[in-house]
Amino acid sequence: MTHRNPTLLFAVLALAMMAPRLSAQIALQFETEKPRYLCYEPVHVHLTVSNLSGNTLIFDGDTPSTQGSISFKIECSSGRHCKAIASLGNPANGLRLAPGESKSLDIILNQFYNLQREDVYNVTALLNHGRLPRTHISQPIQIAVQDGLPILTKNIGLPSENGEDMVIKSVQLNLLRFADIDEDIYALRVEDTENVYSTFRLGSFIDGEKPQVEVDGNSLVHILLQIRPRLFVYFVFGFRNRNLQLMQKRFYTSSDGAPPTLSKSTGYFRIEHGRVAREGVDYIERREDIQTDDSRRNIPEN
Q: How many CB atoms lie within 10 A of CB 176?
């Protein structure tokens, strides 16, 4: 006959009752905006923090009990850990959570960690706070970083900011073919020998008309791409210092049976053999196709 120790049984039951309370003080929901990113593209992740502790939590106070941090454990495919980039701050700065409150943080992960090399990364979010007895850990997510294949390269000089610069600044425009999860797409990257300044996803890649990339006398970049059998997209970008910003985006279809082309026959760039496409009739723009100036500033290449 087996005799049970009532003291030991009580301790086990007490620990079992306490475990959910300890593990439920903070809930973390962690996800990536995209499962695959182009090298040097901003890696956006979303972390939702829910305060289940029953107490207000302040993360940027002056005392240990009002201080907290968010960090990330990042492993590449070889098992090596990515180190944090020094002196770039704490993603939890400014975070304050009332009891029961949830807040979502949008974080550009490669502003804090070097994720510029091609690899598959396993990423876990870690939350610590002076009033919580342990580190809270999210479920891991997987993020792939992959480079594109060069299609076209242009070196261009930039206008002087004050007209007195002795050395003319220049950057390189790289039009790339990037293998995204569902399809290949066009991407644009602006860089020099030291930094990458901007990246843009431009639209679907198809084997059609040759892409056109031109620069006018005002250093505006004009790009015309065929992204569907009967649909073209036209971009105009401008520079602010060395960062590229989207100024115009329009869709075109053929106006006379010939493919739309970018021409300077009248002295300035315009679309010939094309008419502006009608949204909802000639095309439907998906939310993920709407491009904004989402550039990552001054990403070192090493």
A: 22
- In angstroms, rounded to a whole number, what is the distance separating the alpha carbons of residues 33 and 21? 31
Q: How far from the centroid of its chain's Cα atoms is residue 175's Cα?
A: 18
Asked whether 112 and 84 are in contact (CB, 8 A), the reply is yes
**List of domains in the chain:** 6-145 (2.60.40.2970), 148-300 (no CATH)
**Tokens for 148?**
């594109």
Rounded Cα gap, residues 142 and 263, in angstroms: 44
pTM: 0.81
Strand order in 184-191's β-sheet? 149-157, 170-179, 184-191, 195-204, 299-300
Q: How far is the CA of 238 from the CAs of 24, 192, 216, 218, 280, in angstroms?
A: 49, 17, 10, 9, 28
The pLDDT tens digits for 76-133 are 999 999 888 866 678 999 999 999 999 999 999 998 899 989 999 999 999 999 999 9
pLDDT in tens, 167-203: 778 899 999 999 999 999 999 999 998 899 999 999 9
Determine the Cα–Cα distance for residues 198 and 156; give it in Å rounded to an integer: 15
Q: Provide the token pair at 81.
A: 């850990």
Q: How far apart are the first and last CA of the chain?
A: 68
